[in-house]
Structures are given as C-alpha cells and as structure tokens.
Write a structure and sequence with these properties.
The strands form two sheets. Strands 1-8-2-3-7-4-6-5-9-10 form a ten-stranded mixed beta sheet, sandwiched between helices. With about 325 residues, it is α/β, with parallel strands linked by helices. Helices cover about 30% and strands about 20% of the residues. It is built from eleven helices and 15 strands. The structure holds adenosine monophosphate and magnesium ion. Adenosine monophosphate (AMP) binds near residues 107 and 223.
Length: about 325
C-alpha cells in the first residue's frame, strides 16, 4: 500500500489496479471513497470484505459525467434530469432504476441503483481515466467514523487497499445527500448530506418526501441506527456543562468552557454549519484519540448542513441526552 500524490502516473496505476480487481482509495468532496470496478462482481465483493460491510447494504456508483449514468439505468425522469443538471457534479446521489448490467452485489439485490457524479478534481480525473463506474463507499471499516484525509484511510484500511490517492482534506466532510427518484411519486430523501434539503426543495418547488425512521430502513437498508461511531461512548447534549463524571471530551458547535472538559473540539467558532460539517469527522477522531471516558456532543441547529450533522451525531451516539 502507498499513499501517493495524484500524478498522471499514479492515476494510471490506480486504473491498472482497478482492472485487476483491486481496491483503491480516492478523495471526493464529501469523504474518501474505497473504489472497485463496479461491473466486476468479484472486485465489488472485496469492498464488502475489506469494510466488513453486510451484503445487504447497497453501494453508490461514481461516474465522471452524466453520460455514463445512462449505461447504468433503465430510465431517467425529468425530475432526475433537473436535479442532475442543478447539482452534478456534486454531493447529491440519485437512486434510479437499474440497468441489468449493474451487478446485483452492487445494489444488494435492489432493482434500483444509487449514482453520483462527484466534483473533486482527483475523483474526476480518476473516473475519466477509468471511463466507467466505480462502486465506492466511504473508506472506513463498517459502522465507524468516515475518513476525510488520506491519513485517516491509512489508519484503518492500510492492508486492504492497493494505493491511496491523496487529494488533501475533503471540502465538504460529510457524505452525499441521497434522493430516490426511481418512482413517479415525489422524490424521497433517503439520507441528508452535502446538498442542503432546502436547496433541493427550492429547485423542485415542493417539499421532498421525508420517510420516518421505521420506513427508511426498508427503503434504504444501509441507514442503520448505529453508524459513524467513535470507540468512545458519545452522547448528544444541549447543556454547556459536563453531564458525566471522569474525563469528558466536548464536541462543541461554536464555543466551550475549556476548564470544564478534558478535551475540546470546536466545529465552527462563527457558527457556520458548512465549516462544522467539514470538521465533524476529524474532530470526532481527535476526541476519540484523546483518552477521554466519554464524548459529549453539542446539538447544532437542524437546517442546511446541520441536518446532515445531526443525522451523523444521532447515529454515532450511544444514546441521546
Ligand atoms: P455509502 O455507505 O456512503 O456508500 O452510502 C450507501 C448508502 O446509500 C446505503 O447504505 C443505502 O442507504 C443507500 N443506497 C445505495 N443504493 C441504494 C438503493 N439502490 N436504494 C436505496 N438506497 C440505496
Ligand atoms: Mg460510509
């Protein structure tokens, strides 16, 4: 395994590894992805093995341009077209009816496939060189905190990847927003993420269908209750005082009383939810490695990217307070 600058030679090595059915890690604007040749079922199987991810949890296909999408889908509705034109390349994943050529292992047997055109220049260069779809979940063991730097990937998946393309820290820092546009019904929000729900609704001119937690699991099996978790127990709190005894780590939104906590990470001193999302997973890792007994995370306002942040915190939490 090597961490490498994304030079032309490195991109060619990555493409060669992908042809051989190996796994590579690459940067996107959301988080680092663990990529395999999406149309090679054996290569895709290695993603599930490497992450210890259940085969019931479908993967997102990444492509360079919208033209590549047509080879993977049976239909592309007007609504899909409007969302793609507005938000691609970018942190929006669309769930569409799948073409027979997409292997069942990618979609966990679903008749639909999740697809995204990322906007990170290294992802674009890699996908252009590859000239096809890459199945790519986040490059971390299943259920754990997602990686937003090449070093995070190396810490957790060193043995499993052929190479890691280093594109620096991810700009957005939380995963893509997933919207199901596979049926004629209103588009459904399956996961809040890097594109704000408000921005999608402004383009549509009407609200997204937002399923309740119990129906969400059958619509989108990977939306497990527990995910993104640090090793240290994490609680969400609205209090500015420590609620637990022992060494308490604080994940604060804008400020924290440093005397009160053994370790403090502040997501955005100016209260900028984009900056907070960008820092979220790195801050969680930092607190997780600072020998605290418990992490208390402050709730953030639930609009814009705050919705994605709270979704991740609730899933990372041992329980809420
Ligand atoms: P990630 O783990 O970030 O790659 O995101 C994958 C998630 O996308 C899965 O856990 C599912 O929740 C969702 N997903 C992928 N494919 C589908 C699909 N065909 N239908 C519904 N949800 C999907
Ligand atoms: Mg993930």
């Amino acid at each position: 395994m090597a961490i490498t600058e994304p030079t032309e030679a490195a991109l060619q090595n990555a493409v060669r590894a992908l042809h051989d059915g190996d796994l590579i890690a690459f940067p996107t604007e959301t988080v680092y992805g663990l990529g395999a040749a999406a149309l090679q079922p054996k290569a895709v199987a290695r993603i599930f093995e490497a992450k210890k991810r259940p085969l019931t949890d479908p993967l997102i296909c990444h492509v360079a341009t919208v033209e590549h999408v047509f080879a993977l889908t049976r239909s592309f509705s007007d609504i899909a077209r409007i969302l793609a034109d507005t938000f691609w390349p970018g942190p929006l994943t669309l769930v569409l009816n799948k073409h027979a050529r997409v292997p069942d292992i990618v979609t966990a047997g679903f008749p639909t496939v999740a697809i995204r055109v990322p906007e990170h220049p290294v992802a674009t260069a890699l996908l252009t060189e590859w000239d096809g779809p890459l199945a790519a979940p986040s490059a971390n063991p299943f259920g754990r905190t997602s990686p937003t730097t090449a070093a995070h990937v190396e810490e957790q998946l060193r043995e499993q990847v052929e190479l890691i393309l280093d594109g620096g820290p991810c700009r957005i820092g939380v995963e893509s927003t997933i919207v199901d546009v596979s049926s004629p019904a209103a588009p459904r929000l399956l996961r809040p993420g890097g594109v704000a729900v408000e921005a999608i609704e402004a383009i549509l001119g009407y609200p997204l269908d937002i399923p309740q937690a119990d129906t969400l699991h059958s619509a989108s099996p990977g939306r497990m209750r527990h995910h993104y978790a640090p090793r240290t127990p994490l609680y969400i709190t609205s209090s500015s005082q420590a609620q637990h005894s022992g060494r308490v780590g604080r994940l604060a939104f804008t400020k924290a009383d440093c005397a009160e906590f053994a370790a403090v990470e502040i997501l955005s001193p100016t209260g900028d939810l984009r900056e907070a999302a960008h820092r979220l997973f790195g801050a969680l890792r930092q607190l997780d490695s600072s020998h605290v007994d418990v992490i208390e995370a402050e709730a953030v306002p639930e609009h814009g990217l705050g919705r994605a942040i709270m979704d991740r915190l609730r899933r990372a939490a041992t329980s809420s307070k």
